[in-house]
Amino acid sequence: MCGINGYIALHNQNEQKVKGLLSKMNDLIFHRGPDEDGFFCENTASSTLGMAMRRLSIIDLSSGKQPIFSDDKSIVIVFNGEIYNYRELKEKLKKLGVTFNTTSDTEVILKLYEKFGVDAFKELDGMFGFSIYDKNKNKVYIARDFFGEKPLYYYKSDTQFIWASELKSIINVIDKKPQLNSKGLNLYFRLTYIPAPYTIYENIHKLKQNHYIAYDVENNTFSIHQIEKETNNATPKIDVSFDEAKKSVRDLMYESVTSRAVSDVPIGTFLSGGVDSSVVSLCLSQFASTPIDTFSIGFEKKSYDESDKSRVVAKLINSNHHEFIINEKDLAEDVNKILLNFDEPFSDSSSLPTYLVSNRTKNHVKVALTGDGGDEVFGGYNKYYIGKLNTKYTNIVPKGLHGFVKNVTSPLLKTSSDKRGKRFKIKRLLNSIDYNGGDYYWDILSLGFQKNTLGAFLLPKYLNDDLFDVYKKDTGITHPKTLTDFRLIDKVTSLEGDMLVKVDRTSMLNSLECRAPFLNKKVWNYTNTLPEDFLMKGWNKKYILKEAFRDQFPKDFLDKSKSGFGAPVGDWLKSSLRAELESYVTENELIDQNIFHVDNIINLVKNHISGKEDNTFKVWTFYCFQKWYHNIYKRL
């Protein structure tokens, strides 16, 4: 696991200057790879091109130093990630007469590219961001993995082409301060994160998952291509019995966990006690020769603490269990570091406990398996009920009465707690109801401000009617209605932009590598061929996954409800974070900022602080934006 950087100075610059910029970019991501660094830099006919990386040594500790070159030195690669099937690919290449100089997965990518060109990228099972400079073609290829587990950003101007694993490496070496991107800002306030291809900055982009850039060094032009055609909502369902499918799911999960456990350093699991992390921990424990290490975190605030569930699993699998109970003081000194490391606004509050469990875990192991992706792959979110609920509601309540129902229930659904209980869910459902048959899921994704309320807080210049067009185009789904539709949309929005960002940044900030066995192309593609009621039977979510492992757990354990991995930030905004929050809503500051409707945003914050109404998620979204704006953007 590493971090990579690349810099092309057009019109030929001094090679030492480019090396200096690459060194600066590397220093900014030291946490991603504290073990060693590597550089490549040379002048071309039209530019000075350089690539660099920081390495966290996991596989091939002795000979995996990067960059790695082809035998004739004409092709060079820097790589961030892990290729789980590299041993199989290596054997395939050996049979074709290819020889190797290292035992690293990085060299396998390079040799595979030499043999098959960009078609090689689709053979990779793993998480990755890498760049290959091919002098023979005078091109640079920059690729990102199937799910987007590893990040990749890029920027192009008349004088520079830059790519990097983290935004901070780019914004600190570009020619001029970037402007705010209105679509990125709008997406953030709707979703609480910014999915690819957007960032908060104009002209700086995220490379979409399962895509690669082909950059022509001579002409300073580039094109973006999909690595492999993804399974879509038209995938034919296979004719298989539930019992056969259940066995296949179980076999696939054991296979995936086994492949993700390849490591030359100690490995453990994050164990929250939910279905996904429990299944992963169980699978790992059953082929490990000694008890595995498991790690969980809980809160002193009991309504957020579910560490009792993780203890049940730890006892079941006889793991060396490490449990960390945290309080507000534990986060006080780290909240700045955690939130600002995202480099752009990001307000998923579960990033805070994820950072802390990563911080504690790194003292014991260097790699942790997680349950991330289980909900997207097997259909585990409450929001996946929306299709059924929307149909039932609109069949019962006439359209003309819907506004009346919302007005009558609104006072009854107010809460003074930041816990996402029944009243929060009912209110969110009512705000997402769509009588036109298809836009409700785009609204249910909005964890911050929904479409019908955002205009009261953001100035018109930052509002966009075509906000989700790129995701509709990518998935081919304009009006999502089915579980498969919802899961595909999540793959390109919340999974790529939120879940994987959260885990990557918080774990790598602690120099800990996290791997997600559920994020396996074979598992994903298989679940997409199953009848939807195998995944969600009635109101029973992740049905086939739970049934596949039911006999391995205590009775009814897999049916217990579990809250999300959030933090009581609503309380903190009224206490330890209050003074800072209030500093962000001074009238003169907001007027000068020229982003918000001043009076409305002030009232939103004041009503939350006073306890008049619970505005946790809107106010936390605002707070995280302002923290980024004042500590990063204003200082550029």
TrEMBL record:
Positions contributing to L-glutamine binding: D105
UniProt keyword DNA repair present: no
Domain (Glutamine amidotransferase type-2) ranges: 2-218
SUPFAM superfamilies assigned: Adenine nucleotide alpha hydrolases-like, N-terminal nucleophile aminohydrolases (Ntn hydrolases)
Pathway membership: Amino-acid biosynthesis; L-asparagine biosynthesis; L-asparagine from L-aspartate (L-Gln route): step 1/1
UniProt-annotated site: Important for beta-aspartyl-AMP intermediate formation, residues: D372
The reaction(s) this protein catalyses: L-aspartate + L-glutamine + ATP + H2O = L-asparagine + L-glutamate + AMP + diphosphate + H(+)
Binding site for ATP: I297
Record-annotated active site: C2
GO annotation terms (biological process): asparagine biosynthetic process
A GO MF label: asparagine synthase (glutamine-hydrolyzing) activity
InterPro entries per UniProt: Asn_synth_AEB, Asn_synthase, ASN_synthetase/amidase, AsnB_N, GATase_2_dom, Ntn_hydrolases_N, Rossmann-like_a/b/a_fold
Keywords, comma-separated and alphabetical: Amino-acid biosynthesis, Asparagine biosynthesis, ATP-binding, Glutamine amidotransferase, Ligase, Nucleotide-binding
GO cellular component terms attached to this protein's record: cytosol
EC numbers on record: 6.3.5.4
Enzyme superclass (EC): ligase
PANTHER family: ASPARAGINE SYNTHETASE, ASPARAGINE SYNTHETASE (GLUTAMINE-HYDROLYZING)
Matching NCBIfam families: asn_synth_AEB (TIGR01536)
Family of this protein: Belongs to the asparagine synthetase family.
Name of the protein in its database record: asparagine synthase (glutamine-hydrolyzing)
Upper classification of the organism: Bacteria, Pseudomonadati, Bacteroidota, Flavobacteriia, Flavobacteriales
